[in-house]
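[Primary structure, fold]
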Amino acid sequence: MPGDSLIPVPEEVLWRPRSKRSSTLSNDAQHTCSRDIEEVIKRTSKRILQYESQMQELSIKLAEGLSNFRAMDSLMQGSLDELKRDTQYAKHALEEHIPCIHDDLDNSLISLEELSHTLPQIQSHVTEIRRIYDSGQKKAKNLVTDLTWLNTEWHERWRVIIFTNHSPVSRWWTATMRILFAATLITFIWITWVAIVGAYTAHRQRLVWGERLMS
C-alpha cells in the first residue's frame, strides 16, 4: 500500500525541475496505486472464487448429509413403528394369551392330579381284564380241544388214552381204561393160550385114537 512502503523514484525524475518532478511523481504514484489496487482486486476475486467453490462444496456436503439424515430418519421412524407394533403385540399377548396359558396350565395340573388318583384304579381294572382275557383264552383253547376230542373216532380216542399221555381226560379215567385194556389183553391172551393148548391136546388125542383104530 502507498502508506506502508516507499515508492522508488527513477534518477531522471530526480534531475528534472521541481514542477516537472512533482507531476511525474504524482503520475507514478497513481500508476503504482492503481496497480496495487488491481492486485488487491485480483487476490480478493481469487479468494472470493475460492470461497464460492468452498461454499458450493459445503452446500453439496450439506445436501448429502441432509439426504443421509432423512434416509436415517425414515429408517429410524420405520424401526420405531415396528418397535411400537411389536410392543403392542407383546402387550396384547401379555393381556390375552398369558392368562389363557395360565388357565390351561391350571386345568392340566388338575387333570394330572385326577389321573394320578384314577390311574391305580384303571391299572387294577386292566389287570382284571387281562386276567379274564387269559382265563377266557384258556377256556376257549380247552373247548376247542374238547370239541376236537369229541369229533375223534372212538378207537382213536382209546389209542390216545391208553398209549399216550396227551389225552384230555382225567387221570382216573386214564388209569381205568388202561386197567381194562390190560385185563382184556390178559383175558384174550389166556383164552388164546387155552384154545391153542386145547387144540394141541385135541390134535394129539386124535392122533392117538387114529393109531388105535388102525391097529
Remarks:
- The longest helix spans residues 18-150.
